[in-house]
């Protein structure tokens, strides 16, 4: 998260610096472009409009460079941008007071600085778009993997699961019903031996008596027994 915030801040700094370079280049380009147009035959009105035409072309090409990907329209944006830079460079160099190296360097600095600033910002924006695309692709892959895991888990049937082991009380109850069906009432100690517990059968047997399960089970088994069989429960 810290790295992402740092990259966002650096991108905003680049945008702000490019805007400052563009404002400075626009100011210098307007002054030099107006003088250039007046020197080479333009009237006052045309000379005032000519720098705006060049700066407008540069602005449109810059925005198109930021928006365009690697498609066929990118070379058109670069052509318009380079053409505007050449016009601005000619106007700035022609406005130099003398044709010395330093005078030409000062005059050519604004358009060249704008060209380099726009290219650097364009690289930063492309890198940012690539990072966002990679992040989106990674998240989509993780979501698809999670969905596949859910599908695989849902495909497991209940038949493949091992049967649950009966509890101690369930084993006691099965033994109790078997003994009652044979005509005898098992004790708590017998229930402990059947379930493998210790001093638990008496409490369970007392609970069954309180709930009425013992009497109801005995009556049910007597009704299910044959008429000629005299089933009498006795406690061993």
Automatic annotation (TrEMBL):
The highest taxon in the source lineage is: Bacteria
One Pfam family this chain carries? DUF2637
Q: Does the keyword Membrane apply?
A: yes
Alphabetically list the UniProt keywords: Membrane, Transmembrane, Transmembrane helix
**InterPro entries listed in its UniProt record:** DUF2637
Q: Which residues cross the membrane?
A: 78-95, 101-121
Region Disordered, as annotated, extends over 211-236
Q: Which residue ranges have biased composition labelled Polar residues? A: 214-236
Record's protein name? DUF2637 domain-containing protein
């Amino acid at each position: 998260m810290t790295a992402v915030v740092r990259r966002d801040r650096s991108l905003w700094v680049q945008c702000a610096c490019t805007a400052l370079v563009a404002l400075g280049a626009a100011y210098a380009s307007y002054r030099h472009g107006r003088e250039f147009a007046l020197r080479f035959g333009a009237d006052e009105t045309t000379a005032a409009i000519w720098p705006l035409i060049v700066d407008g072309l540069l602005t449109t090409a810059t925005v198109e460079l930021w928006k365009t990907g690697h498609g066929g329209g990118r070379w058109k944006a670069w052509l318009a941008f380079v053409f505007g830079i050449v016009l601005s460079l000619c106007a700035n160099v022609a406005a130099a007071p003398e044709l010395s190296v330093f005078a030409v360097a000062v005059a050519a600095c604004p358009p060249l600085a704008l060209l380099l600033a726009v290219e650097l910002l364009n690289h930063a924006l492309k890198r940012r778009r690539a990072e966002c695309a990679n992040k989106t692709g990674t998240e989509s892959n993780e979501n698809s993997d999670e969905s596949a895991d859910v599908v695989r888990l849902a495909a497991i049937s209940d038949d493949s699961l091992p049967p649950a082991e009966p509890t101690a009380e369930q084993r006691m109850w099965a033994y109790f019903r078997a003994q009652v069906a044979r005509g005898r009432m098992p004790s708590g100690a017998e229930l402990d031996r059947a379930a493998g517990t210790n001093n638990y059968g008496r409490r369970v047997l007392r609970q069954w008596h309180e709930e009425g399960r013992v009497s109801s089970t005995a009556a049910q088994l007597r009704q299910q027994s044959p008429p000629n069989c005299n089933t009498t429960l006795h406690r061993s």
